[in-house]
Design goal:
357 residues, Endonuclease III, domain 1, Nucleoside Triphosphate Pyrophosphohydrolase, 14 helices, 43% helix
Length: 357
């Protein structure tokens, strides 16, 4: 084990400098704001998806102070579609703290960074390593997979006992590494290995710089490590949504900060068709003018949401919305904080291509 630990970090560094990713927009910077933003966006989201969001977000909020002084309603449109919206709310709260309490300067240690909203130990260590060269271990999903396979660690990775073992190994690796270890390359290299080589489905062991000491390769247990989670049937939910169109305007509602799509604008949502029909009647509208549209399914991390949309067009003057409601213009969809399935539905309406039954 000692030999494996001693060679681990430098092997990752050498591989990353030759074969790892070098041209991502958040690389080759020591700016903790840009690094932090990329780390939060990349949580549970693929690089290809993040790239466009990252550039647009920075164009609107070029510094942490620019983000910190903005209203949450200004921030959410630049996150809409990325999912896991608690990240955006915590991002904004963290920026406010850094602007108002730290004078717009990020803390320089992983320990202090981890006290801020939305920054866990692994994210804090990554920021500190990339921005300041701190010798801190990281342990995200990709890195857990690499460590479990290389060191032969069994046990569900979300359990505390397994996590503690992995963190302990990560600290041992850094402690045994050369004093001049390139922390940027090592930190990035672990992420690159997990996403490009030591993948979940079919790891490319022949291209791995750690193959000589890898437990999983030696014992042919790549499919057993990390220990697979027991399969559970994904819960399913159903709802009805109303697309109420007056001219070029659509009625939307503000979601509460907690729960799904927290802080975003969505279509009026109902538990079932009868509840939706009662709402329509209460507005003095006709059920005969309401058209059922083709349904769609949106997959969250823990459940599937089956959406049945309904569409009604009225020509009367715009009704005064309630406190939580507002009218938005179809030409402003790209600047509005809408969940992905709602944006898809309204884009169809905008393009005059609603799919009706």
């Amino acid at each position: 084990m000692k030999k494996s630990v001693s060679s681990f970090a430098q092997s990752v560094v050498d591989w990353q400098l030759s074969h790892g990713r070098q041209h991502l927009p958040w690389q080759h910077t020591k700016d903790p704001y840009r690094i932090w933003l990329s780390e939060i966006m990349l949580q549970q989201t693929q690089v290809a998806t993040v790239l466009g969001y990252y550039e647009r977000f920075l164009a609107r909020f070029p510094t942490v102070s620019a983000l910190g002084v903005a209203e949450q309603s200004e921030v959410m449109p630049y996150w809409a579609g990325l999912g896991y919206y608690a990240r955006a709310r915590n991002l904004h709260k963290c920026a406010q703290t850094i602007h108002y309490e730290y004078g717009g300067q990020f803390p320089r240690s992983s320990k202090e960074l981890a006290t801020l909203s939305g920054i866990g130990p692994s994210t804090a260590a990554a920021i500190a390593a990339f921005a300041y060269g701190e010798r801190s271990p990281i342990m995200d999903g990709n890195v857990k997979r690499v460590f479990c396979r290389y060191f032969g660690v069994y046990g569900l990775t979300h359990l505390r006992a397994t996590e503690n073992k992995l963190w302990d190994l990560a600290r041992q690796v850094i402690a045994a590494a050369p004093a001049d270890l390139n922390m940027t390359a090592y930190t990035q290299g672990q992420m690159d290995l997990g996403s490009q080589v030591c993948t979940r489905g079919q790891p490319n062991c022949s291209a791995c710089p750690l193959q000589a000491g890898c437990y999983a390769l030696e014992h042919q247990t790549q499919t057993e490590l990390p220990t697979p989670k027991p399969k559970t049937k994904q819960a399913e939910r159903h709802c009805d949504m109303l697309i109420w169109q007056q001219g070029n305007q659509i009625l939307v509602e503000q979601r509460p900060d907690s729960g799904i799509w927290g802080g975003l604008l969505t279509l009026p949502q109902f538990e079932d068709e009868s509840q939706l029909q009662q709402f329509i009647l209460n507005q003095g509208l006709s059920l005969n003018e309401t058209h059922k549209m083709a349904g769609l399914t949106h997959v969250f991390s823990h459940f599937k949401l089956h959406i049945t949309p309904w569409w009604i067009q009225t020509s009367t003057p715009l009704r005064e919305p309630s406190v939580q409601q507002q009218w938005i213009d179809l030409t402003q969809l790209d600047q509005t904080a809408l969940p992905a399935p709602v944006l898809k539905l309204l884009t169809g309406i905008k393009n005059q291509q609603p799919i009706l039954f």
